[in-house]
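Colleagues,

Please find the record for the two-part complex below.
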Amino acid sequence: MSNLVVAPVVLPLLTGAVLLFAPRRLAWQRGVSIVSALLVVAVGLILVRTAWQGGIQVFQAGNWPAPFGITLVADLTSALLVSATSVAALAVVLFSPYGMGKDREELYYYAGFHFLLVGVHGSFLTGDIFNLFVFFELMLLASYLLVALGGTAVQLRETFKYALINNVASGFFLLGVAWLYRTYGTLNMADLALRVSMSESNGWLSVIAVLFIVVFGVKAAVFPLYGWLPGSYFAGPTPVVAFFGGVLSKVGIYALLRTFTLIFVEDPAFTHRGVLLPLALITMVIGIIGAIAQTDFKRILSFHIISQIGYMLMGIGLLTPLAIAGTIIFVVHQMVVKTVLFLTAGAAEQVTGTTDLRKMSGLLTSHGPLGVLFLIAALALVGIPPLSGFFGKLTLLQAGVEARAFFSVAVALIVGLGTLFSMIKIFRYSFWGEEKGLRLLDKNSPAFRGLLAPIALLVVVSAALGLGAEHVITYTSASAQQLLSGQAYIEAVLGSFVVARSGS
Amino acid sequence: MELLISLSVGIVVGSGVYLILQRELLRVIMGSLLLGYGINMALFLSGGIKTGGPPILGEEGPAGAVTDPLPQALILTAIVIGLGVFALLLALGYRTFQETGTTDLSELAGVEHE
């Protein structure tokens, strides 16, 4: 029992509610947002420490015992993802005053952003599959608002597509919840896991599992359900898109990770090896082909998200402790690095007025620090040691070799080459070469420094993740163990209830 | 009774899918509303229909049997969320009409963006 677990949900909720008043007083809006984001970072780090030292932290709302009440759970994975999200959120909040127009900031931007955080943190922490649905909806509602912020024709069109596709997916989510309840009579994830392990479903569980693959696949942009992503991520305001690219698509991956290690483990040969792994490989390849074909900064990055989602899915598909650990490292690394890459795209857009690579070049000469930071982040994404991407990929590939999935490993390596190629393409076009295109911001102007600070913050975090890889791998191995065994999770959530039930 | 409701779930969801596949923006929005309603009914079925008295002390059916109240609580939540999303989609659709002057989705596909 720990009240700390509920803080990452309640803090942004209160902040958002407070920020709904006086949307035009920007100094106040920014100040409150930064303070709240800092507090959530602190809470996230404390949560990681308590989960590491004191085991799984559980919060039962109103002290109702587990299968009956609302449960929030912070195990090692959830705590780590909450703190990674909060760091990315802090950087985005710091970036926002410089990264988009004042007119957009005044449209309840900060309030919407904090409500989005409520949904994201809630999804990571909830211990109940129906509450997962509720938090998903909260997150999506806030995200529709944020993508459409500003209301240009492109944004409205893309938001409509995004909202409609996700709305249909939510319908399927609800249907899956109904089937689970019909079959097992409970929606608490720990209780579900217990009942699944005690009964034979004769394949019915696999049917529900495939339904959930569709649902979470839409949220995570898995092939063939990724169609909404490149468009809507191109249309939105840059800070919003950075957070979406870094964090939002990973919430779907987290939901898959949680449910497919805890609940849907009856027939891994079909659900994991048979469905998830092939989907992972196709997602990787499609994403990278898309990225290579583009000539726009933001679009290349958007397609990269899809290809990286493939790597994370591959870890879940392999379902060995090492592979799951690799997935977790990869998710955390992506949350940081993808956000920073989108932020550099935003900074380049603020400087040159465009994101079209053909219309800018020579940024390294005129705005050196931005180029250096971009290069470090890009190398981290590609996976050059000692940066953070290397260890995620290494762990995943090692797991692939151990599981004798040599074809998957080969595909992953080739896709890695494609990633390197498209990052070099961005660097060569926009940073290298002679100075070309507009320069709207001076290198020494406060606005440019304001853009650089959050980027530098995230690059430092990424480098720290890489240099402290030993600790990161120890931690994620432990959390993978926790996810896969499931026993600790069930006991922490259900407590004495388990003893009572297995005795009867 | 359960068969009847199952069949109506099928009809409502089918109509919803049909409307979503239309080109008119408003019909698409209505379609997603119907889809949600159909699935809410399916959720209603998940607890079984009227298997006992109301779940209130002193009003149970014979041998203490009560109807499962949980699916109803779930539907209530789902309806509220559905309403929120529906209102947002309507507002979004209206703004799109104001901004582009059309509600035909195939015409919207031509809006310039590059």
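The CA atoms of residues 33 and 86 of chain B lie 7 Å apart.

Comments are welcome before we finalize the supplementary table.
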